[in-house]
Amino acid sequence: MNVRHDQSQSPLAIIGAGGSLPFAVADAVKATGRPFVLFAIEGVTDAARATSYPHRWVAVGQGGKLIKAMRAEGCRDIVFIGTLVRPPVWKMRLGLNTLLMLPSIIAAFRGGDDHVLKSVSRIAERYGFRVVAAHEVAPSILMPEGHLTKRQASAADLDDIALGMDVLRAIGRFDVGQAAVVADRHVLAVEGAEGTDAMLERIAQLRQRGRVHAPLGRGVLVKTPRPEQDRRFDLPGIGPKTVAAAKAAGLGGIAVIAGETVVAEPEALRAAAEEAGLFVTGLPAKH
User: For the whole model, what pTM was predicted?
Assistant: First the structure.
């Protein structure tokens, strides 16, 4: 069903999962003056923070309820943002209307994250909604080019960053991994289903066990979108929590792609990085 709407005047539906990124997007959209509703996911979205915004609660699997609620709020544009561990279909609380979508949902779950999100967007579009990128409605959330910190990447750091980018480009075509850790041209870890924070925790544990030989303050967390990734979904994100995890892992800095990375709480991130002695840099998109 193709329906034309004046999207700029209708409230934006922010379907927010875990982490701080949904709230960073909500704050940025609020600053533009556009109305929005945060559709918070039960058991996933931070409940204490969600109540500070216009919001409604939905459970994973309640697609029919979500569609009905978005229509009731007058929403036409949808943004998906935040972290969500994909549950098995048989553990989802499927509403009656959602059961009608079950064949499409099962097909969507047979693939990586980008495949799932593209499939979900096609389902939403069949119901007359338009899925947009978070940075399309809130461009201020994107990482700028250059260093955010006084400390800058050294020549050795730049070498590690280049290797990390090569690794992520190589595995990205399999719809897996947006992050890697490299120290002294040694690939210490690539991100799997555990996510960036858990990957960094793994590095910290490896250091404790004597499995990482690079000195403290050496090594870089590198994050980049997958080469064929739909930029409307799941852009890499960093925030103060990322800085804390990188510091705990004994790293020297964080490198991401400018204009293709979401930054949550940028001032808090900058302050945390300065205090931790880490560099944070935004690389040119063609890096």
Answer: 0.81
